[in-house]
Amino acid sequence: MSAVERHRNILDFTLASLMRRKGKNSALIVVYTLVVFVLASALFFTQAIRREAGLVLTDAPELVVQRLVAGRHDLIPTAYLEKIRDIRGVTGARSRLWGYYYDATVGANYTLEVPLEAPPPEGSVIVGEGLARTSGAAVDSLMPFRTTRGEITTFAVSKILPSDSSLVSADLVLLSEKDFREMFGVDRAHATDLAVTVRNKKEIPVIARKIAEALPDTRTISRDEILRTYDAVFSWRGGIMLALLAGAVLAFVIFAWDRAAGLSAEERKEIGILKAIGWETSDVLLMKFWEGVAVSLTAFLLGIVAAYVHVFFASAGLFEPVLKGWSVLYPRFRLVPFIDFPQVAALFFLTVVPYTVATVIPSWRAATVDPDAVMRG
Amino acid sequence: MIDLQDIQKTFNKGRPNEYVAVRRVSLKVEPQLVTVLKGPSGSGKTTLLSLLGCMTRPTSGRIFLDGREITSLPERFLTEIRRRTYGFIFQQFNLVKGITVLENVMLPAYPTGERRAVLRDRAMELLELFSMAHKAPSKVEWLSGGESQRVAIARALINDPGYVIADEPTAHLDTALSREFMEIVATLKGRGKTIVMASHDPIVCSEGLVDRIVEVRDGSLVSDGPHR
Amino acid sequence: MTPFLPRRSTLYLTFVALSLLVLAGLFMNGARRVAASGPRLAEERRQVRAYGLTDLVLFTDARYTRHPSMADRNAPFQDYPQALEHFPSGSLMPPPPHVRFHERR
């Protein structure tokens, strides 16, 4: 005679009754597992990206200054560098040269960039791993590019960046300043934008304001804003999560509606029988509680295990078509499994608790029938 | 002993469809005897059985079980008493479909928290007693009427109650099975159980082992006497 | 004697325990991979610093999803805010906070 045995006995019966509608209940578990799987996959995926972005982009430029012309990002005069350097608290300002190049033969977009430190020698390029994979470029092979004057120029690939770092560099083509300017026809008086370093991190907003005052045709983007971009873009309010969450919540509401609409006559009768043969109201509710737990916990466990394997072992392969979109060059990265346990706990409570409640609540009234209801027929 | 004192049971009280199922009945059920409540359908005998079995509360009056008043006990205690004291056999058998015979027999004991192995042995013993052991792993929907009833009886006995309450137990049985049922009743009586049945079946009422027949009509007792 | 299968509750609780074990194993694998990610993160940081990078390579189709933090104020919503997106990737990520008008200081 023990509480544990009572639970186990009732669980035995619950499982036996679930087995009676094997088809329906397995379908339910499969669908529910799928919902958990998709949500958990998105959760793991976005969380891992946010964490890695947060850790890696801490070394991004403290301030980026861009020039806007008629609402569009435009080349910035390098003469602005001097004006910026004159602002108190600024320790350095350098021009950044970067842009996009569409490779018509491969059909992919590359990011061309002149490194701030140690650029490759003229006539050679360093390329990202994703680019090498997509275009078939190898060390020492020649890559043709079409310049703004319509000529074909070729660069020798001197190095391919490690695939381990493809999350920041998959599509990069790193080249020398001279090559960049010649290819895109950018004269020495202009740059893509400016990277500014400051002495005191706390002064960044002040300096940003001063730059905006001194150079009214520019805007600044601080490192904090860069970091917050990834926090916001992959937060639960962001596109992917919101879309998935909305779908899942809707599915659940439909299901809960179906549940709350009432028990079947058969279920009601069964509860009556249990009451008549000596089950208490609390025993019936305990049975329903286990019914909810059995379904939702199974779905949660299966879903979350599958999601982990999917995201961190299979590189979120099922998301690939979605993330790929129209891009030909698709970064393939193995995410570092940063897991946010509070989020996992939240997912647990979001999946197991509402389902269980939705199972228990509708049977409440049925469970409080007088035990003689069965006799009265 | 179950002692009903001045019991009244009214359904839908205060509404237009109010009706009195049992009116001012006093009745003592003596232990270890077979008592039959006899009367036409709608006479209130099923309601009386429910009252005797603590399945429902009287609208007025008091019920004593072995000298203890149980009318005002909260549900928890009442269920506990009911589970230990009574075994019920329903007219429709009311077995739970889709699960095995054995599980059906054990079902009333699940909430007691008894160990399953002990429970299973006791259930098997009972099935053995009614020659149903070989059917233990079958689903109840494959049973015949007579078999279903024997399972229902085994289920009623799983918590070893002192009282067995049966509502129209022979209503769905043919003559041979009805006689078989009365043999089982004899066995139960031999084991010291108190049996209360509601029935108007002559096979039940004319049986020698019935100690007392109480006639019910329109919710009142008409005659009450020992069986001739 | 009838053959009895193991109790259903035993089977179920075993399943739950095994799943939890698998999950714990996966999380442990995760913790190990996180611990071993030092060199990779260091290399990524080195590249960010040396090349002056500002964004992750998640999408390469649209410039405002390739470099979301550098996006033009007008780029992520070509015609008007919440327009149906032209690029699939654009519908997966909203414009960053500092580009949205209403959050602009």
Overall description:
By secondary structure, chain A is an alpha+beta fold. Chain A is built from 14 helices and 12 strands. Chain A has 2 domains: 200 residues, no CATH class; 116 residues, Barwin-like endoglucanases. In chain A, the strands form 2 sheets. In chain A, strands 1, 2, 4, 5, 6, 7, 8, 9, 11 and 12 form a 10-stranded mixed β-sheet that branches. In chain A, strands 3-10 form a two-stranded antiparallel ribbon. In chain A, helix 2 runs antiparallel to helix 13 and helix 11 runs antiparallel to helix 13. The model of chain A has no long low-confidence stretch (mean pLDDT 89). In chain B, helix 6 links the parallel strand 7 and strand 8. Chain B is globular and about 50 Å long. The mean pLDDT of chain B is 91. Chain C contains 4 helices and no strands. Chains A and B meet through helix 1, helix 10, helix 11 and helix 14 of A and helix 1 and helix 2 of B.
Distance between the termini of chain C: 81 Å
Number of domains of chain C: 2
What is the oligomeric state here?
Answer: heterotrimer
- Total number of helical segments of chain C? 4
The largest sheet of chain A is:
10 strands, mixed
Structural class of chain A: alpha+beta
Strand residue content of chain A: 15-25%
Number of domains of chain A: 2
From the alpha-carbon coordinates, what is the Rg of chain A to the nearest angstrom?
Answer: 30 Å
Biggest chain-to-chain interface with counts: A-C, 89 and 60 residues
Order of helices and strands of chain C: HHHH
CA-based shape of chain C = elongated
The chain-level mean pLDDT of chain C equals 80
Order of helices and strands of chain A: HHEEEHEEEHEEHEHEEHEHHHHHHH
Report low-confidence residues of chain A grouped into runs of 5 or more: none
